[in-house]
Structure prediction request, 193 residues.
Amino acid sequence: MTFLRPFPHYFYHMFYIMKIRNIFALTFFLVSFSFGFAQEKEYIVTNSNDTIYGTLKRKFDLLDRPGVNYIFRDEQEKKRQLDPAEIKLIRSLDGVDGNSYIATAYGRWYAKRIIEGRIEVYQTVDSTIFYVSKDGSDLEFKNFGGFGSRKTAHAEIRPLFVDNPEILEEFDTLKGSHANILYIIQKYNDFHK
Prediction:
């Protein structure tokens, strides 16, 4: 008859060390994971390139012409209404706009970035007006997705692709619909990554 011997003492010691090491690794992972989320903050960038951190809330004012405005509270708890003429960029994390970047168009309207890349597409936060920026230029109004004709939309967007004959050739085969324009801009950006 065989007799089963209990584990030697060093096996118990080894399991104890592994347990402690796993607890330490899990704690380290959770702490570093939480710091990763804690580092991102909402902020605004002014036209003079000052970055101010704080919290952002959207304000609806039915009597205001743009219809949408933002209230910003900086880290010193100073609260103010943002003027689009003074703001270059807003970084939003929560609220109505969610996790997004919002720029100002012509110093009057707020537009949320919907496509990021070499060609960026922005849509106004209160309507379906679109603006385009190529290579970091100022936002420029482009008439697509609204009530304009597809032919006009195609003609307005076409100059953005002249530096890529392959994309331009495919774009010329498409109608100037909103979906086609967003598709070809995304394809252009993917090509130029």
The helical segments are 9-38, 150-157, 165-173, 178-191.
